[in-house]
Design a protein that fits this description.
The complex is a heterodimer of chains A (about 260) and B (about 230). Chain A has 10 helices and 2 strands, in the order H-H-H-E-E-H-H-H-H-H-H-H. Chain A is mainly alpha-helical. The longest helix of chain A is centred in the N-terminal third of the chain and has 32 residues. Chain B is α/β, with parallel strands linked by helices and about 230 residues long. A 6-stranded mixed sheet of chain B has the order 6-7-8-3-9-10, with helices on both faces. A 4-stranded antiparallel sheet of chain B has the order 2-1-4-5, with helices on one face. In chain B, helix 3 runs parallel beside helix 7. Chain B is globular, with a radius of gyration of 17 Å. In chain B, strand 7, helix 8 and strand 8 form a beta-alpha-beta unit. The chains are: A mainly alpha (about 260), B alpha/beta (about 230). At the A-B interface, helix 5 and helix 6 of A face helix 2 and helix 3 of B.
């Protein structure tokens, strides 16, 4: 195995990790605040991907990704998958955008992935500033610690949930938009990234934002570098084994605190 | 300012308050005392809208607020310092205070009100960048009270503020509550330390098994066997 290929895979791992972190942060936010295990979350990514696909290719019918209107139910998963199958059939679709490949120190890096990574970082910075600098952002963190006390401060819990779900959903939609420039989209796309996103959230410690970012990078490195050394399937097996071992050793997550 | 008329409330099948009638006038300090399980905390939670009223009425400044939710009641000038303090442990002291002034009307006066809270509790100013969970019990109680003041309330509900504090800290806390009173706030307080609280308030109610049993001026009550009743419940 040439070291240059491994280096390339390692960089690709970081780039994928950025997008995965965006997903994990959005899910973590919903976990921590609304306190429901939202199994249909990653279906939003798929929707985000289709939304971009529609926006750029089919017709500019949709003015915005429809994610925010679809935040209500937990039984969304099957509905969305079936609906997507109905709308777009089970074909794999991709944008086929001709984005350049960059050569850096002999490594070939996809411009699309660099772009996705940069946008992810910006979105995460935006989320961080929102959560620490604004009243609503601070209230979202407060609700995840004591929702009743926050009601006593004058915050309408329903409004806080709505904003949180909206932001979490927007993160998923954005991640979807960033993923379609590198992957093709199909109705069962959620099934590919769903378990991975949940795994990352649990591994980083539920509700722990920093942990989610670290776990995203760890998992994407394992998948990317492991995929080069062995095969993609084997890399996923290794990632799941690491997850299971980590959960046995530290059930509160790698960066979680025992309370 | 606050009137409860024949209020009955509870959780599920269980009724915690029976036909409770109570008033707090502007500028007054009023205590509710009684043995454990008498319904004192439920009474506070009913007033702040966390527990719904089944029958009866809750009036603020003459307007009915029965059936309103907690965030609407805060907006009408009632701040509840809940039992067990309930500060946000992973937010900083300053962020906790900011959340106390979450209401749009309070945000405009943030700089002024936070200054007043820091004057009242200088230790909070020293620790303002620290996570609230790292404060001592007494400091956390000060933060809980300071956070409630941030909404510029007309009435403050204090539920067992001395709970879990060391005896020395309890004395200091009562001193601080006395100062909050002097700032002109109306106070309704639930306390286990009956003797101390009677020296602080104008009037008191004795609550027993969900019913108001005795009501009177604290000076008169202190002379009766009120204190024994409050503790033993007979």
């Amino acid at each position: 195995m040439e070291p240059i290929l491994i280096a390339e895979a390692a960089i690709n791992g970081i780039l994928l990790g950025g997008v995965l972190a965006l997903l994990a942060l959005g899910l973590n936010l919903i976990f921590g605040v609304v306190d429901i295990i939202w199994i249909a979350y990653v279906e939003l990514v798929m929707l985000g991907m289709y939304a971009v696909y529609w926006l750029l290719i089919i017709a500019p019918i949709l003015s915005s990704p429809p994610v925010n209107q679809l935040l209500a139910t937990g039984g969304l998963l099957f509905f969305l998958q079936s609906f997507a199958t109905f709308l777009w059939a089970t074909d794999h679709r991709s944008l086929r955008l001709a984005l350049p490949i960059l050569e850096v120190f002999g490594m070939f890096l996809s411009f699309a992935r660099l772009l996705a990574f940069a946008v992810s970082l910006l979105a995460m910075l935006g989320l961080y500033l929102f959560l620490t600098r604004t009243y609503m952002g601070t209230a979202i963190r407060a609700v995840s610690q004591d929702r009743e006390a926050m009601a006593l401060m004058g915050a309408d819990a329903r409004k806080v949930y709505l904003v949180t779900s909206g932001i979490g959903g927007a993160m998923a939609g954005l991640a979807g938009a960033l993923l379609i420039i590198q992957y093709s989209v199909h109705p069962h796309f959620g099934a590919a990234f769903g378990p991975l996103t949940f795994m990352i959230c649990v591994l980083g410690g539920l509700g722990n934002m920093f942990g989610a970012v670290v776990a995203s990078l760890l998992m994407s490195e394992v998948i990317s570098v492991g995929g080069i050394i062995t095969s993609t399937e084997m890399a996923y097996v290794v990632a799941f084994v690491i997850f299971i071992v980590a959960i046995f050793v530290r059930p509160e997550g790698i960066l979680g605190k025992r309370e | 300012m606050l009137e409860l008329q024949g209020v009955t409330a509870g959780y599920g099948e269980f009724t915690a308050l029976w036909d409770v009638t109570l008033t707090v006038n502007a500028g007054e300090a009023v205590a509710v005392v009684g043995p454990n399980g008498a319904g004192k905390t439920t009474l506070m939670r009913v007033i702040s809208g966390l527990v719904p009223i089944r029958t009866g009425d809750l009036r603020l400044d003459g307007r009915s607020f029965a059936g309103r939710r907690a965030h609407e009641i805060v907006a009408h000038g009632i701040a509840h310092v809940p039992e067990g303090r309930r500060i946000f442990p992973r937010l900083t002291v300053e962020e906790n205070l900011k959340m106390g002034g979450f209401l749009p009307a309070s945000r405009r006066h943030y700089a002024e009100t936070v200054g007043r809270v820091y004057d009242l509790f200088p230790v909070l100013a020293e620790r303002r960048r620290q996570r609230a969970g790292t404060l001592s019990g007494g400091e956390q109680q000060m933060l809980a009270i300071g956070r409630a003041l941030m909404s510029k309330p007309k009435l403050i509900l204090l539920d067992e503020p001395s709970l879990g504090l060391a005896p020395v800290m309890v004395l200091r806390l009562f001193e601080l509550i006395r100062r909050v009173r002097q700032e002109g706030y109306t106070i309704l307080i639930v306390e286990q330390n009956v003797r101390q609280v009677l020296s602080l308030v104008d009037r008191a109610y004795l609550l027993e098994v969900g019913r108001i049993k005795v009501e009177g001026r604290s000076a008169d009550l202190a002379e009766q066997d009120f204190v024994r009743k409050a503790y033993v419940g007979i």
